[in-house]
Predict the structure of Nuclease SbcCD subunit D.
Amino acid sequence: MRLLHTSDWHLGRSFHRVDMLGAQAAFVTHLVTTVREHAVDAVVVAGDVYDRAVPPLAAVELFDDALHRLAGLGVPTVMISGNHDSARRLGVGAGLIGRAGIHLRTEPSACGTPVVLADTFGDVALYGLPYLEPALVKGEFGVAKAGHETVLAAAMERVRADLATRPAGTRSVVLAHAFVTGGEPSDSERDITVGGVAAVPAGVFDGVDYVALGHLHGCQTLTDRIRYSGSPLPYSFSETAHRKTMWLVDLGADGSVTAERVDCPVPRALARLRGTLEELLADPELTRHEDAWVEATLTDAVRPADPMARLLERFPHTLSLAFDPERAPDDPEVSYAKRLAGRSDQQIAEDFVAHVRGAGPDTSEQGVLRDAFDAVRVDETVREVAR
């Protein structure tokens, strides 16, 4: 069976101030063409179909168009909700839509109920594990502690229990939206940390033939059987080095996996440039970036006049301008933002406690801070879904 694995469409999202809806529509066309030209048997979409719980109308219209075109091909499609999606909204009409071969899996309670497809070698069971917010689903899975590993492990127990009832030789595919240990994040994923932990071990998914992951935006292989497709389009300059692709996965009669990457159309290259303004304007090596979307970081000791206007003359698609004067590490004018770069909210809060009272928080106090940050994040998730 040949699968096309994609995820993280983020319909409705922009790139800095650039509307990406046209590029997203081009991707949908490319997806449909790929399904047809590569004789794909099933499409799997591993979450974050939309960029937010209440997407703009134009994004909903594009999703509707994608569903109609995929259904028109007669190729089954399995989709799960991600942490950016409203599971309830995405899943509206799932029963009716399923009759057209588009299977929306957004309910945690249905993790152990697969979409069963067949080829000449027998059945393939596809299990959809939507994004599982630990605090919201721990009751469903009967776990005492709300954590990503515990709820995913419980969901996978349901998968393995159902698979054990299937005929011998049934092959299995799991769709999941999670941060799995070994994956490389970028700046454009929303933080899903719970209790100080965001990642789950790959071993959670033991016992199935292929795991189609979503959430991280870089295409990557954790094992031969566990892969991220990544987002089809860039959504931050941290993705400058990404090659945007989908996975074309062949599932053999014995459950063996072979996979190849299918490139996605990217509307414009990305470039991260750094140097003084005069260096960026004069360097002939930068000619190749003149048509790219540009993030420029100026290192001038004194901020130059009209830097954006001057950059736009050479790089007309400059979208981001930052200033990072080259200074000695002990220079008192080193920026506050630079001192905080790469530090989590938890670490910043602990540093503040140490600054105020002269000693950092003890283990118990660290737990209180973690619980507070988790409560705020869950509250924001609940309020967004309820909108």
